Amino acid sequence: MIIVALAVVGATALGIASERRVAAALTIARRSLGLMLYVLVPFVSFVNIAHLRFTESRGVGLGFAYIAVITVGLTAWTAGRWALGLSGSRLGALICAVVVSNTGYLGYPVAVALFGAGALPSAVAYDQLVNGPATFLIAFGVGAALGTAATNARARAWSFISRNPPLIAVIAGLIAPPTLAPAPLPAISHVIVDGMLVVGFFAVGVYLSSERRVDGAPLIAGPDRPVMLAVGLRMALAPLIMVALSGLLVGVPSTYLLQSAMPTGISSLIVGHSYGLDQELIATIIVWSTAIALIAALVLAAVT
Q1: pLDDT tens string 179-223
Q2: Coil/strand/helix, residue 149
Q3: Kind plus residue range of the DSSP H or E element containing 69
Q4: Most buried of 27, 33, 83, 250, CB within 10 angstroms?
Q5: CA gap 25, 236 in Å, rounded
Q6: How many CB atoms within 10 Å of residue 66?
């Protein structure tokens, strides 16, 4: 877990430094994210889902996850609108930062580091079957409704298909027999997961630096009330809902509980950029939630 934390910090720092010194850094980050979205993540998804056999706890756990995501999203809207007085792009940024989590770039390697390679299929299932639709349906819808950029329902529907090849790979993996993902493909997917951690957080550093510099804001701003609300909902309320439902009804895999507590994902910045949400608020939530997640994971690894 220490290696994962160092990789996250080092890759993010490299991304920040590159954005401020290398003219092509933003282009490299965008192409890297595209490579992961259209090639690497679909490969990892297909290989691991092909070997995943759904049990009652795994299937029901995904339903619990949707309840958690919808609950924290509605809570963010209610508290942000009525308690904090947010509206428009800032309210949209808050909601997106709560419903979009980093269950891929960070969730995969953390799950493997804490629970072993056998946890990766469940981590992939949660990421692609919960966080993927939450991003492309809920977050995109929130961005369209509250952002400053114009859009339409047809464009959002097409983006869900054209920008979500990992979900297609998951569906293929659910249909395909394990023989279509023979050894050494699962082992190769584990290596790719480690590489995506570095590449993904390099892109995080580039995007964070770019957005903060354009807005004329400091790289790391102190957490204000909207930031604290977002971090609390994303990393405390969501997993508490999962734990409560798991304890009362059907026990779910530990990997699901871990994924439900992941910090805000970089995809929220992409949504914010596309629809004109408050990027400074999203970037600050990403920084603080990721820092808290890394500290919590290091403590958990030390005591288990």
Answers
A1: 888 888 988 988 888 888 888 888 888 887 887 776 676 777 778
A2: coil
A3: helix 56-78
A4: 33
A5: 34
A6: 14
**Domains of the chain as residue ranges with CATH:** 2-303 (1.20.1530.20)
Give the whole-angstrom CA distance, residue 137 versus residue 133. Answer: 5
Q: Is the dihedral of CA 106, 111, 112, 117 positive or negative?
A: negative
Residue 136 sits at φ, ψ, to 5 deg, of -80, -15
48/191 Cα distance (integer angstroms): 13
Q: How far apart are CA 46 and CA 42, in angstroms?
A: 6
Q: Which residue in 278, 295, 182 sits closest to 230, CA to CA?
A: 278
SS3 content of the chain, % helix, strand, coil (to 5): 80, 0, 20
* One-letter amino acid for residue 285 of the chain: I
Give the single-character DSSP code of 22.
-
Name the nearest CA neighbour of 208 among 104, 284, 261.
Answer: 284
pLDDT, one tens digit per residue, over 67-95 is 999 999 999 999 999 999 998 899 999 99
| CB of 131 closer than 8 Å to CB of 227 | no
CA 211-263-228 angle, 5° bins: 80
Chain position carrying tokens 């005591």: 303
Residue type, 299: V
In sequence order, which residues have a C-beta less than 8 Å from that of residue 109 and are 6 or more positions away? 4, 7, 193, 194, 197
Tokens coding 163: 């920008």
Task: Give the predicted TM-score (pTM) of the model.
Answer: 0.82
Q: What angle do CA 233, 261, 1 make, to 5 degrees?
A: 140
For residues 71 and 260, give the distance between their C-alpha atoms in angstroms, rounded to a whole number.
12
Length of the chain: 304
Q: Which residue has the tokens 């596309």?
A: 274
